[in-house]
Design a protein that fits this description.
about 400 residues; Arc Repressor Mutant, subunit A; Restriction Endonuclease; 3 domains; 6-stranded mixed sheet; 5-stranded parallel sheet; 14 strands; about 15% strand
Length: about 400
């Protein structure tokens, strides 16, 4: 088990709140992290049928087993439990006594927000960031290998084939998680929907076009996208609107949290396939955006990430807002920095700088960092070493 970037924030939250709720995708390492950070806590996994049955049928008796608190894993499997925890916490608000984990964002947070508001901190553990992958011996160093491997810890911890492990992950996700989150009756069509979403990563999310390609109604597309978001498979990057008096694109962009998963869904099984794939540029854009999102999430920053595109063709893959300045990020898979790479970012900076000062970054697929007068050319393998929260 390598040290996770979220560790210090998890410890700090446990010193300030009676409960801590840790969410994230299945197999992102939530249980491992909590058991490492809180080794003296009792542990109960609510995925286990007899434990879940006990907790559901006799929640007071179940919780009475843990007078000193516990790590309650996959607590969304028993959504009534936080209501009973509320009374125990009010009686004894000792910090860090209860640690809750869950892999279904909407189900868990609805239950927690209703019962434990003000009593729990909520943190998110996403798949491994590049800074965390580096801590594994023999981690991939080639860009295509990095994107293909993704960031699920077991792949690196047990030196598994990404293609084989991700295939099993998708099967488990479809058979178990999807059905527990939503009433998806046709899993074959749903898998086709997820594959088509992978083909649209880093692209504008056109719901009607996606519905037509899958052969389902647009309301079903909206519902199924919510399923993917709730289980931390995808996220939507909204367009920037604030303080800009221009005609801007209104659709969000779709991104996957894990490029290894996106590659598997696209049928890409080797790094050589990825190097030649027509969507390699889009996959690299998603990798860079998700790396920055992971960095910000691990630092406690949520939101504040957008893309920019107006109807005159000015665009930037990412705009990060902060209190004193924005950061305009253009993402290019090419290995050599050219003036053409900088053009879009410079035009976007000029379009939005009237509202707030900006810095310009071009994240690219090469190796040499360049500090230019008006822009930073940032190699892909230094993205995790840059601060994206200020």
């Amino acid at each position: 088990m390598v040290t996770r970037d979220l560790t210090d924030r998890l410890k700090a939250a446990a010193k300030a709140f009676p409960a801590v709720t840790l969410t994230g995708p299945r197999q992102s390492g939530k249980s491992t992290l909590c058991r490492a950070v809180f080794p003296r806590h009792a542990y109960a996994n609510l995925e286990t049928p007899d434990i879940r049955s006990f907790a559901a049928s006799d929640p007071r008796g179940f919780l009475a087993q843990y007078p000193h608190g516990a790590v309650l894993d996959e607590v969304q499997r028993c959504p009534e439990l936080p209501s009973y925890l509320q009374g125990l916490i009010d009686q004894d608000p000792s910090p860090g006594k209860w640690i809750l984990t869950g892999s279904q964002n909407l189900t868990l947070l609805e239950s927690v927000s209703q019962s434990l508001a003000g009593r729990t901190a909520v943190l998110h553990l996403l798949p491994l960031a590049r800074s965390e992958v580096r801590r594994f011996p023999g981690h991939p160093k080639d860009l295509d290998e990095v994107m293909l491997s993704g960031g699920y810890p077991r792949i690196f911890n047990e030196k598994l084939s990404p293609a084989e492990w991700l295939g099993a992950y998708v099967g488990t996700y479809l058979e178990r998680d999807v059905r527990s989150i939503s009433r998806v009756g046709d899993l074959v069509t749903f898998q086709r929907f997820v594959e088509l979403c992978a083909g649209r990563t880093a692209q504008l999310l056109n719901l009607s076009g996606l519905a037509s390609d899958v052969g389902i109604a647009q309301p079903t597309v909206k519902a199924w996208l919510s399923v993917l978001e709730a289980s931390f498979i995808v996220f939507r990057l909204p367009p920037l609107h604030a303080n800009i008096r221009k005609r801007l694109v209104k659709m969000p962009k779709l991104h996957f949290y894990d490029t290894g998963l996106a590659c598997w869904l696209l049928g890409i099984r080797t790094a050589d396939q990825l190097r030649r794939h027509p969507l390699r540029g889009a996959i690299f854009e998603t990798w860079a955006v998700s790396e920055i999102a992971k960095h910000r999430t691990n630092q406690g920053e949520h939101g504040g990430m957008f893309f920019y595109r107006d109807q005159h063709g000015t665009e930037a893959d990412l705009v990060i807002e902060s209190a004193d300045r924005d950061t305009v990020v253009e993402i290019k898979a090419g290995q050599t920095v050219s003036d053409d790479m900088l053009t879009a970012a410079r035009r976007t900076k000029a379009a939005i700088e009237e509202a707030v000062p900006c810095r310009t970054v071009v994240a690219f697929g090469g190796q040499t960092r360049q500090e230019r007068q008006d822009a930073l050319a940032l190699p892909w393998d230094q993205i995790d070493r840059e601060s994206w929260t200020r």
